[in-house]
Amino acid sequence: MLRVIDASSIIHGWDNYPPEQFPRLWKWVAEEIESKELQIPRVAFDEVKGKLPECADWLRDTGIEKLVENEGILKFAVTIHSLLGIEGDDYGNGVGENDILIIASAKISNAELITNEKIQNNLPSNLKNCKIPAVCDFQKVCVPHIDFLRYLKVSGEVFG
To answer: Can you tell me the distance from the alpha carbon of 125 to that of 33, in angstroms, rounded to the nearest whole number?
Structure first.
């Protein structure tokens, strides 16, 4: 199954499961990357590079495929903007431009999105305040999503 990882998840994994202490976990993640089952949108990679350069270097050296915005991704991003009522740069406290491109990348790639953004049990009255998981759950978006820990659990891998 193809999965697309958000910056929040890879940073969460790197911070909470340091490669020096969890080498088997990161060997498995590297295998997921090498088999092209785990990819990252270019904008998410750039976020990782800005916040955790050593993680971005590891991703690059492992050969992660970066999903670059294409016509399909950009068109779907416009659809998401419309669903949220975003006009121009008038974003709320929810998803930003990069988040929308990450969701659109997962959708166009027919992939599950790994994100550690907060789940909102109740949609905010202003849809501009929706976080990534809430937007993924919109009927017209419909992108399956899990967080980093769930990604590890559903893999069935044992890292001990």
So the answer is: 38
What is the C-alpha to C-alpha distance for residues 135 and 42, in angstroms, rounded to an integer? 20
Sign of the Cα pseudo-torsion (93, 44, 151, 149, in order)? negative
Alpha-carbon span 109 to 73, nearest angstrom: 9
Residue in 82, 88, 80 with CA at minimum distance from that of residue 106: 80
pLDDT in tens, 46-83: 999 999 999 999 999 999 999 999 999 999 999 999 99
Query: Measured in whole angstroms, how far is the alpha carbon of residue 81 from the centre of its chain?
Result: 18
In terms of CATH, what superfamily is 3-155?
5'-nuclease (3.40.50.1010)
Give the Cα separation of 130 and 96 in Å (integer): 10
